[in-house]
Amino acid sequence: MPLKISICIATYKRPKMLEKLLDSIFACSINRQLVSKADIIVVDNDAQCTARETVEGKSIPDPVFFSLQYGSNPAKGITNVRNDLLSRADAFNPDFIVFVDDDEWVTEQWLNELVRTITERNADAAMGPVLPVFEKPLPDYVACWFNRESHEDQSKIDAIKTGNLILRASKLRELKLRFDSRFNITGSSDTYFGIQLQKSGSEIYWAAKAIAYETVPASRATMSWVIKRVYRGASTYTYMLKLEKKWGALIRKFFVSILYIFIGLITSVLVIVPFRKRYWGILKLVNGVGGITGLGNLLYNEYK
């Protein structure tokens, strides 16, 4: 029986990028024997509702197959919006819920491949690659840190990100699973969401052909942004270990962080040497510092 899909998009002050994403979804070559309905839900985290005109003025090419809903949730924070999206999606009673970011656009077979992977593997989650596209050319020593993960098609993976993700709706209802508000302004709520999903015995698979592209603006294509992201990832990882009371892993993380700080202090001088990974030492140092400060809940607030 063909499946019903809810496609969830959180947005904040990116109307042109959002329009590009919507156009790419409408242009998908969707197997109608596989998918019978695709309901697209956009929730705007901007109190000025800057996405409203883009969504409500959008022409829907096939209104029988597609629907497009706009919602506003001005309460600041990423988990507020993601949970709002889950509630709105659930109202459509879908078989699967898809998350895709507002600064991305998707390829023609994107939705088919996400659905194919999660159904063929009888999984509760599947994730596809998100490939960066830079607004302007970058030196290789910066661009190399934006390389994304890659796995064999339909191989098992151990983490979730909401940039290109499909979830089994019945599993979320069974677990009453939502994004944790403690990560509302720090980010990484999707990673912690995945941890909770896996604790229930759920498996996550890689949909290598469900490709999305992400626009990386000049403001983000910098080493300072990369450094902040590495710090955030290390500190929130330590924080998650605390929440999960994984004391053995937390002790290991502490000593690994001390080692990273030591290695980073020694190798940071490599930044003056003109080679591709010249920031390796600095990022090791930042990773170590983040791992330590996460113990005291000193987290970087990306969504403040």
What does this structure look like?
The structure is a single chain. The protein is α/β, with parallel strands linked by helices and 304 residues long. The protein folds into 2 domains: 3-216, Alpha-Beta Complex (Spore Coat Polysaccharide Biosynthesis Protein SpsA, Chain A); 223-296. It is built from 10 helices and 11 strands. Helix 1 (15-26) links the parallel strand 1 and strand 2. The chain is globular and about 60 Å long. The N and C termini lie far apart (44 Å). 38% of the residues are buried. The model has no long low-confidence stretch (mean pLDDT 95).
Q: In CATH terms, what is the architecture of the largest domain?
A: Alpha-Beta Complex
| Name of the CATH homologous superfamily of the largest domain | Spore Coat Polysaccharide Biosynthesis Protein SpsA, Chain A
**Total DSSP helices:** 10
Mean pLDDT over the full residue set: 95
Instruction: State the order of secondary-structure elements, H for helix, E for strand.
Output: EHEHEHEEHEEHEEHHEEHHH
Q: Any key phrases for this structure?
A:
304 residues; alpha/beta; Spore Coat Polysaccharide Biosynthesis Protein SpsA, Chain A; 2 domains; eight-stranded mixed beta sheet; 10 helices; 39% helix
